[in-house]
Protein 1
Amino acid sequence: MADLVENILREEAEKESKYKTIVVQKDVDIEIDDGNLLAYDPNPIDVELFRSNRNEYLSNLARDNTQLLFNKLWTLPVEKVENIVLAKLPNPSTQFPREKRLPKPKPETKWEKYAKVKGIQNKKKDKLVWDEQHKEFRPRWGYGRANDDTKDWLIEIKSNADPDEDPFAKRTNAKKERTAKNELQRLRNIARSRYGKVPGVGLTPVSKPNKDQLSKALVLAKKSTASLGKFTEKLPKEKATREKGKRRKFEPCVGDMKKEKAKQLHILHTLSQAPPVNVAKAAQQFMSQEEDNATFSKEGGRKKRGDKAGRRSKAGGRPPKKNKGFQNRGKGGKGGKGK
């Protein structure tokens, strides 16, 4: 019986030496932020133990504080997701400064604004759809999309179709037009978000233009001449077109005297103030002027630092001018008048 008790005590001692207890005693309770999984230990460091064995002391301190943090986490409410126990963390109490600014909200596109006004809600669609031809799931849009009609090797032609028209090229061109239209709308949304208003792009090609588009095309065609449409002949039964644009607004000659007085006083106050002086630039100019004066007096009146008025070198003169009416002969010949 005594041997059994000794064995049990020995095993417990070995377990305690190998696995430390979860109960940690601290002179001052540590501060724990559950939301950030952060623990702050305000207890002072034992300098003697730290100097004797620094690595062991820091590892023991980190282990004790981590154990206290886990003990705190086990007191939080938990939930089970796919046979995994998860703890519900509260909102963090410690605020950390951000490295960068908060991202600005993305501006709404023209369609998003229209859908918001009309109450249209987008339905979430799956990214992959079933392709009957290849018998596999493929992306709904983009490269290698499912049910791509431009990859068909055979197209059925209707009885009233144009025999000279290529149906394969027609589908390819229609796809290119849709891509260009989407790109134009994307660039318009970017311009609208930056500048607020998008200027008119002139004439946008459409298959069936309406009355307003035709009148706009007519006005632009007339203005495209050198005289800006002043001498362009009018069509029969053509009405006079009114040009739309912004009118310049000028202040009246005799207006509000208070505003005029305040404006004049502001101008007078601005002129009466002394202009700001850049002290660093003025000091730098003064020092450079002093150095130039010292160099000028030392060299006997001749400057060296980039002075264009200094003495010109003998070897750096201008090239001799060529005499008109004379020709140079070959090596060893005599020069004479040219014929």
Protein 2
Amino acid sequence: MPDFCAAYGCTNARSLQTRMRGITFHKFPKCSERRRQWKRALRRDGFVANNRSLLCSEHFSNEDFDRTGQTVRLKAGAVPTIFNFPVHLQRPVAPRSTTASRRAGENLPMDPQQDQPPPDIKRKAPDHQYAFPSSPKALKAKLDAAMATVRKLQREKSNALARVRRAKKNMKALLEELKAKNLINEELNDKLECCSVFTTSFCY
């Protein structure tokens, strides 16, 4: 049974496809305080994390990872911050209630007839920015992760092509050596060369 990401609306599961996309999966922390931080970040009522609960790497920023070793690890203290919550789970920004903001409102000139600030200096109601799928920082983190995956796949393709070229060169040298020692006839040589070309072409 595959391991699924526990984030709201995320369909990523541990598989060959997600591995090829560079997606990694990380278990919930054993530390109770950090585990509570992860659960709060998920915003899933009634969710209880167990020893098999996972979050995929798409919910962490690029700075949260340690990629210096062979295994991609989360840095100590990393907390998931990238989610695509529906509107009812978005957290609206609370209005400012500091002393400075209240004084700024009190110092606005008032319209004596309506006891309200003149229309030309009324502040427009803020857009509901919390309804957007994610912040620019989160989008940039996802873009960085996607670009890293592209670079990784390009390196893997380059390495695979290099291996194919070496195999083709070795096959050709071997055929020439066998032919020089009269260990194969012309007909067998042609068949082996044909197989070699077909195999390397298929690999490309």
Protein 3
Amino acid sequence: MAARVLWAVRRRMRPLAVHAASESRGWLHPFSTATQRTAGEDCNSEDPPDELRPSLAERALKLKAIKLEKEVQDLTVRYQRAVADSENIRRRTQRCVEDAKIFGIQSFCKDLVEVADILEKTTECISEETEPADQKLTLEKIFRGLSLLEAKLKSVFAKHGLEKMTPIGDKYDPHEHELICHVPAGVGVQPGTVAFVRQDGYKLHGRTIRLAQVEVAVESQRRL
């Protein structure tokens, strides 16, 4: 700023200095006023000195700053779009997980409905109006219905990876068995193995979902 002011003062003082020098030397020109005006116009038409002009480096930096600003704006817009897309994906995924929790057992329930149909038909065979002579026939129908029901249940369990454990004779495992009591080891029963199952245990795709309640054989202690 100071350099510009100094340059402007020098430009204005130059015609006055030339005119004063001419008068001191006795140079009187008939067109001194025109000469001064021309000199002033020439001074006005002069360009600012080179040190006041913006350098090429400054111009390059300015252009680079504009370019970087545009890139920042573009990246900001892309980031906002990516955030919005990820939020939409998160919501859809959460909705799918919730639907899977609710309808994940739909196939299993559909198979159980068939089991319920068999059970319902079996119970219809028993009625208060059944004659004593027909009791044998009724019991046969109930037996066939229960047998069919058991077979259907086993088929449904196998289809969905549900397996009943049969641990009799197996070594006691606290991860699969719930110990109820100890019993003396008998013939053909090794100590530390399962001698009797009170309640069956089940596995789902190899993972225990219900422990089997068992009685474990131990060596009998002789009294002295």
